[in-house]
């Protein structure tokens, strides 16, 4: 049995932060401090933790981040007004609206309301379109983090077969587009979803599997070929020995020794997502000074 290399998101994100210091210093010399406005609507405990973790990183790097906490019963109109106000505030280069939003608010309308020039999550259709034509401005943070990890650990993508499990607009679809782009991955890509009749038929052919389905430890050794690289995006809370723990979409114990490399959960793609939010905000600040 060969060893499975653990692709640490902590190590890769630290490499990115190191490379950001010079860019941040250059902006500060011009009197610009990259700033993020994070909007949190309601009391969803997971969303509160995500927003706190994201903004903590901004603070530690000397960047600006403000959290706008709105009550669960906030009207859609009020949220749109706030976004419009921040769109026109030069102190903020990025706007993040933490999803999911309460049911009475139309998420698509909210995503459309964010200025595409401050859309550091990369969810606005203009930015999604730019990614799909191979000329990206803001790449969604999780897919961008996945591509960074592959590059950082020198996992070959060019000419390889990448199988993505999941087709959401925030993970599966953009990562499938990015890995197929000549400039970013140049891989042959298959995208699977809940309508794929025999998932194993595809995942067992993959050199790289990106698991973004949201199904706890679903992919075990029987789903992969020897030596495959596994990118585990899933964040699933499960009960284990009376304790609540986070696991991915990959059954780590099962694939050890069969996979050549694996991103762990936690400390894999999670920290990369935060790092790319910071990077996108720095990029937005840079674009605003050009
Ligand atoms: P979604 O629920 O939006 O999408 C899940 C996708 O997986 C869908 O396309 C769905 O198919 C597909 N799917 C579900 N079950 C199966 C199955 N049995 N076989 C094949 N395909 C399946 O989730 P997200 O993309 O938002 O997130 C995916 C996971 O990644 C979640 O666990 C989420 O928590 C995590 N996540 C982690 C992040 C991080 O920073 N690490 C960031 C964002 C998400 P269909 O389209 O047909 O429904």
Polypeptide structure, described:
This protein is of the alpha/beta class and 290 residues long. Helix content is 40%, strand content 17%. It has ten helices and eleven strands. The strands form three sheets. A six-stranded parallel sheet has the order 1-11-8-7-5-6. Strands 3-2-4 form a three-stranded parallel sheet, sandwiched between helices. A two-stranded antiparallel sheet has the order 9-10. Helix 1 crosses helix 6, helix 2 packs across helix 10 and helix 6 packs across helix 10. The longest helix is centred in the first third of the chain and has 21 residues. The protein is globular and about 55 Å long. The mean pLDDT is 97. The site of NADPH dihydro-nicotinamide-adenine-dinucleotide phosphate has 25 residues, from helix 10.
Give the topology, please:
Layout: E1 5-6, H1 9-29, E2 35-41, H2 45-60, E3 64-70, H3 76-87, E4 94-97, H4 107-113, H5 125-132, H6 141-152, E5 161-165, H7 172-180, E6 188-192, H8 199-203, E7 208-211, E8 229-232, E9 236-240, E10 243-247, H9 252-255, E11 261-262, H10 269-289
Parallel strand pairs: 1-11, 2-3, 2-4, 5-6, 5-7, 7-8, 8-11
Antiparallel strand pairs: 9-10
The structure holds NADPH dihydro-nicotinamide-adenine-dinucleotide phosphate (NDP).
NADPH dihydro-nicotinamide-adenine-dinucleotide phosphate is lined by residues 142, 165-168, 170-172, 192-196, 199, 212-215, 233-236, 269-270, 273.
């Amino acid at each position: 049995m060969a060893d499975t290399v653990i692709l640490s998101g902590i190590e890769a994100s630290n490499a990115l932060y190191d490379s950001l210091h010079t860019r941040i210093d250059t902006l500060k010399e011009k009197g610009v401090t990259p700033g993020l406005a994070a909007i949190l609507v309601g009391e969803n405990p997971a969303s509160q933790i995500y927003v706190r973790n994201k903004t903590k990183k901004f603070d530690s790097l000397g960047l600006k981040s403000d959290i706008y906490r709105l009550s669960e019963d906030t009207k859609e109109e009020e949220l749109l007004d706030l976004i419009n106000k921040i769109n026109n505030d030069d102190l903020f280069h990025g706007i993040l609206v933490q999803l999911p939003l309460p049911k009475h608010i139309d998420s698509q309308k909210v995503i459309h309301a964010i200025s595409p020039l401050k859309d550091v999550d990369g969810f606005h259709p203009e930015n999604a379109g730019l990614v799909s034509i191979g000329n990206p401005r803001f790449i969604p943070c999780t897919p961008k983090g996945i591509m960074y990890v592959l590059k950082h650990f020198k996992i070959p993508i060019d000419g390889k077969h990448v199988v993505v499990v999941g087709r959401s607009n925030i993970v599966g679809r953009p990562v499938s587009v990015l890995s197929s782009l000549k400039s970013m991955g140049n891989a042959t890509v298959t995208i699977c979803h809940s309508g794929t009749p025999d998932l194993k038929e595809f995942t067992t052919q993959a050199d790289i599997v990106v698991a973004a389905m949201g199904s706890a430890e679903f992919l075990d050794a029987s789903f992969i070929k020897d030596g495959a690289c596994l990118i585990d995006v899933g964040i699933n809370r499960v009960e284990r020995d009376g304790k609540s723990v986070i696991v991915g979409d990959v059954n780590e114990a099962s694939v050890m020794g069969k996979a050549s490399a694996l991103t762990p959960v936690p400390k894999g793609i999670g920290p990369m997502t935060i790092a790319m939010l910071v990077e996108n905000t720095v990029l937005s600040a840079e674009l605003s000074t050009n």
